[in-house]
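sry for the spam today, last one i promise. struct tokens for design, 163 residues
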């Protein structure tokens, strides 16, 4: 494989990225499941797409990308597969959400129910996790680690399949 592909999958055996990607997946999956499956009180796929396109005037292609990012991105993170891409997509998805919705409500979450919506403080935490995963990769117990171990690299022992 080429160098770009190797760098996409390359990761250490560190536990820190594992913890970050699992918790980001746990936080984001319910949001995607609301939009795609109607779980957790969500409206389901068709209604979510209609809301984004009709009420928020988001072009359909971007509505589909946002919904699928929130659903498939956490699944990819859980397995540690294409972690950098999934983290980037989730981070970008949350950047758009912050710009279109959250920034209008300031910094703070609506902890006390005294404002109309949620501020950007939660988005900042998600961005920090996403950036850390983009930099570090998937870490221990990931498909990315298994895949990167199979790339031929200078000085590497061929045939390693460690998690």
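last one done:
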């Amino acid at each position: 494989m080429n160098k770009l592909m190797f760098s996409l999958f390359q990761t250490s055996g560190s536990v820190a990225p594992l913890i970050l990607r699992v918790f980001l997946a746990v936080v984001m999956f319910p949001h995607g499941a609301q939009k795609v499956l109607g779980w957790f009180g969500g409206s389901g796929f068709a209604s979510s797409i209609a809301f984004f396109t009709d009420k928020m005037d988001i072009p359909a292609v971007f509505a589909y990308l946002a919904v699928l990012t929130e659903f498939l991105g956490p699944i990819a993170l859980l397995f540690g597969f294409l972690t950098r891409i999934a983290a980037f997509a989730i981070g970008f998805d949350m950047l758009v959400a912050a710009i279109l919705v959250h920034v209008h409500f300031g910094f703070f979450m609506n902890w006390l129910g005294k404002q109309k919506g949620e501020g950007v403080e939660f988005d900042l935490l998600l961005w920090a996790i996403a950036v850390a995963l983009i930099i570090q990769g998937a870490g221990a117990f990931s498909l990315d680690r298994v895949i990167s171990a199979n790339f031929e690299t200078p000085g590497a022992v061929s045939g390693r399949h460690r998690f």
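The chain is about 65% helix and 0% strand. ok im logging off now
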